[in-house]
Write a structure and sequence with these properties.
single chain; 242 residues; mainly alpha; disordered N terminus
């Protein structure tokens, strides 16, 4: 995204190169029906309800991933800087969820009973495994796409003429907000700092983790649009995994 590039630099940063790698994925994300219909205010309520429940599950696990990544930071300055950015993002998203849960009649019991879709389950487990088993730099690269892609998508939708009465306007405002952008820029900057200290092999792992997480971002939104459920699993109580 051109907005974060440092115009005075003559060499491409790690995050510039990583973003270039996911451009084909971003093309597919930007044309996702869920995001198009959300921006128009015509997203079916049952789709948004499914999405926001899955996002609540995701955020619970993502918060833990961020804590693990922060614990692996090489110095206190990066620990505090990363935790600050992560805390802002989580607080904002939790507030957004609370508003939408009430607006769409989703109870706390509904949230507690919700199970992760296959895409949500795969994505959160990828992030948790990467956070636990990889270096700080690689783990940081895995959590970055969530910050960056939501910022990019939010800004893109917010730049379009607002649709009067769009019930999803709070979502658009949240991810198109300058404060959310500032948090994303912070994590981008920390990732570049980590990349400069990494070996060539580690940078390749960082880039691969970044790409994989971006693919999961596409899968998450696409699965919500399709109201994805687990295959070969009848709607019986015995099929539920505790």
């Amino acid at each position: 995204m051109d907005g974060i590039r440092q115009g005075t630099e003559t060499t491409e940063s790690f995050t510039d190169a990583a973003w270039d790698r996911i451009k084909p994925i971003m093309v597919e994300i930007e044309r996702l029906p869920l995001l198009e219909r959300l921006s128009e205010g015509t997203l079916p309520p049952e789709v948004f309800r499914h999405y926001i429940l899955q996002d609540a599950i995701y955020l619970k696990h993502y918060a833990r991933c961020l804590a693990i990544v922060a614990a692996k930071a090489p110095d206190n300055a990066q620990v505090l800087r990363f935790l600050g950015s992560a805390q802002k993002a989580i607080t904002v998203e939790q507030g957004l969820h609370a508003g939408f849960l009430m607006q769409f009649g989703i109870s706390s019991a509904d949230v507690s009973a919700a199970e992760p879709s296959p895409a949500c389950f795969a994505y959160t487990n990828f992030l948790l495994a990467t956070a636990y088993h990889s270096s700080y730099a690689v783990a940081l690269s895995a959590v970055l796409p969530c910050f960056w892609i939501y910022w990019h998508v939010g800004e893109g939708i917010k730049s379009k003429p607002a649709i009067e009465g769009n019930v999803f306007q709070a979502w658009i405002n949240t991810y198109g907000d300058p404060q959310f952008a500032a948090g994303a820029r912070e994590v981008i900057a920390l990732t570049d700092i980590a990349a400069r200290a990494a070996s060539a092999a580690e940078r390749r792992q960082m880039s691969d983790a970044f790409v994989r997480a971006a693919q999961y971002e596409w899968m998450f939104w696409d699965s919500a649009w399709r109201l994805e459920k687990w295959p070969a699993c009848p709607t019986l109580p015995g099929c539920k995994i505790a």
